[in-house]
């Protein structure tokens, strides 16, 4: 029996128990509302999407071409339109997620106004955005199912193919997909991390990404001044997130452990080593130090460590932070990743300074020597100049091959004068295949772009404003926006329906019958788009 028919039967049975006082209630109408609202709570969403993500991880382990993707979305409407587009063009939402970017929450969702990515925004806004995203995705389901129910009624009235439409209802694929949600560095100590993780999971998050920076000195991964914490501190926060998942019954929740060590040259604290070679000792071995031969080598307030049988003084900056040795970022990243996976994390995130498959792959190869199924979430970041990076990669590869590159200025390869060249075409091919190449060669399970919709909103607004306030006037909107919506079949061209007016009309009819005052009559201008 289908979910829809089962819901009809359940409501009919319930109705019969109320001695005629529910006569105005239609079991079929109630069943439709039940089916249109499959996920009653955020925890229902988290449990459902965690299973999807775990299955996708297993499928990637078996076949590295089965990687997953997402785009960062800063508003529920943006996330909804993204998933409507994915389903329309790909025919399925499979392997497509949403990413909740801490950067965009800070820049676009804080009551303080635009903020840098430094964990200064209200942490409650993170969970609120998760809830908002899933509210819009569920509304997308309700809208599409509502259209199917209309088709079902029409088929019944006209003798159409009722079975075919019923099958579409019974096999309907939801727009609700996993969200990888950024909790930054945890917004405080491990208890604060646990409390926020609970709110995020209750809102629907099945996957939480946490980074190993100092919470109160957190920086964007692509800016300078990053400060990492010792492994013990980071693992305590991983534990806090896992306890939050377990407490709420999301037993297969996913934790992404992000390391910023590649670009972080500082630490706030020196952990206490209790045995030779322990984690604290390994972390401290990366500190920049100078030998201490006598008390004369020390200044007032200096610290001294014993390392490998010798006394050394760690280099400390005027702000109290300690410096790591140069060129240790890769080794620190590898140790961070292995340690995180050995202590409860499920996926890794290595924040890099450029998109280079071999750079990522070399680190993953080292990690997989210890943990063979290690896999990554990777930031296909707008902070990279992708055009320049890949043109320079091609330039360097051609140089090594002995190919003549005298026609190109490596430092100026971003110039438009190179756009139609052989080198530019080769670079674009590498950009196009980057995700597949990195999934195959660098263990990347999930590719995301952190803040693409920040940039698309700016670009599309610039193009519209340029024409509308210029010579094109209203044609800028009609030609550049509305006509494109119609030609490309965007449901959003009927913005009243997208905002819920048709759903509201249906509900009014359920509640009021023929007395319902509906908005979708013949005078509704949205009918111009039929």
UniProtKB/TrEMBL annotation:
It catalyses: D-threo-isocitrate = glyoxylate + succinate. The active site is at residue 220. Pfam families: ICL. Keywords: Lyase, Magnesium, Metal-binding. Its cofactor is Mg(2+). SUPFAM superfamilies: Phosphoenolpyruvate/pyruvate domain (SSF51621). One of its GO terms (biological process) is carboxylic acid metabolic process. GO terms for molecular function: isocitrate lyase activity; metal ion binding. Can also use Mn(2+) ion. It comes from the Bacteria. Substrate binds at residues 101-103, 221-222, 258, 379-383, 450. Mg(2+) binds at residue 182. NCBIfam families: PRK06498.1. This is Isocitrate lyase. It comes from Alteromonas lipolytica.
């Amino acid at each position: 029996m289908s979910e829809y028919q089962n819901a009809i039967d359940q409501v009919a049975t319930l109705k019969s128990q109320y001695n005629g006082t529910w006569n105005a209630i239609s079991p079929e109408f109630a069943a439709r509302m039940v089916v249109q609202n499959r996920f009653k709570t955020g925890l229902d969403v988290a449990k459902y999407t965690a299973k999807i993500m775990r299955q996708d991880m297993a499928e990637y382990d078996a076949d590295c071409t089965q990687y997953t993707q997402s785009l960062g979305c800063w508003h529920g409407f943006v996330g909804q339109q993204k998933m409507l587009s994915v389903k329309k063009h790909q025919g399925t939402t499979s392997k497509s997620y949403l990413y909740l970017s801490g950067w965009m929450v800070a820049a676009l969702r804080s009551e303080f106004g635009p903020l840098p990515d430094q964990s200064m925004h209200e942490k409650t806004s993170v969970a609120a955005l998760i809830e908002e995203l899933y509210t819009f995705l569920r509304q997308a389901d309700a809208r599409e199912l509502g259209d199917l129910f209309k088709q079902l009624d029409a088929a019944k009235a006209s003798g159409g193919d009722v079975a075919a439409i019923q099958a579409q209802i019974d096999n309907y694929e939801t727009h609700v997909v996993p969200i990888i949600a950024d909790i930054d560095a945890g917004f405080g100590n491990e208890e604060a991390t646990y409390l926020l993780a609970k709110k995020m999971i209750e809102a629907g998050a099945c996957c939480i990404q946490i980074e190993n920076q100092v919470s109160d000195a957190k920086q964007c991964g692509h800016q300078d001044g990053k400060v990492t914490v010792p492994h013990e501190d980071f693992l305590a926060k991983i534990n806090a997130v896992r306890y939050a998942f377990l407490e709420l019954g999301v037993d297969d929740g996913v934790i992404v452990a992000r390391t910023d060590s590649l670009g972080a040259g500082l630490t706030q604290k020196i952990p206490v080593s209790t045995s030779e070679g322990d984690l604290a000792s390994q972390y401290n071995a990366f500190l920049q130090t100078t030998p201490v031969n006598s008390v004369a080598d020390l200044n007032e307030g200096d610290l001294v460590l014993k390392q490998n049988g010798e006394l050394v003084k760690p280099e400390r900056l005027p702000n109290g932070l300690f410096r790591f040795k140069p060129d240790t970022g890769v080794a620190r990243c590898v140790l961070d990743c292995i340690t995180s996976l050995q202590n409860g994390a499920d996926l890794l995130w290595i924040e890099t300074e450029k998109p280079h498959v071999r750079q990522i792959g070399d680190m993953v190869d080292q990690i997989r020597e210890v943990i063979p199924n290690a896999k990554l979430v990777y930031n296909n970041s707008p902070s990279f100049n992708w055009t320049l990076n890949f043109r320079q990669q091609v330039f360097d590869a051609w140089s090594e091959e002995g190919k003549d590159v005298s026609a190109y200025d490596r430092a100026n390869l971003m110039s438009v004068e190179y756009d139609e060249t052989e080198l530019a075409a080769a670079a674009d091919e590498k950009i196009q295949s980057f995700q597949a190449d990195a999934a195959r060669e660098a263990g990347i399970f999930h590719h995301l772009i952190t803040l693409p919709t920040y940039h698309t909103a700016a670009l599309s607004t610039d193009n519209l404003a340029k024409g509308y306030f210029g010579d094109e006037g209203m044609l800028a909107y009609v030609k550049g926006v509305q006509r494109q919506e119609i030609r490309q079949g965007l449901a959003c061209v009927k913005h009243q329906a997208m905002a819920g007016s048709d759903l509201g009309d249906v509900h009014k009819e359920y509640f009021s019958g023929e007395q319902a005052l509906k908005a979708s009559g013949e005078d509704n201008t949205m009918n111009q788009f039929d």
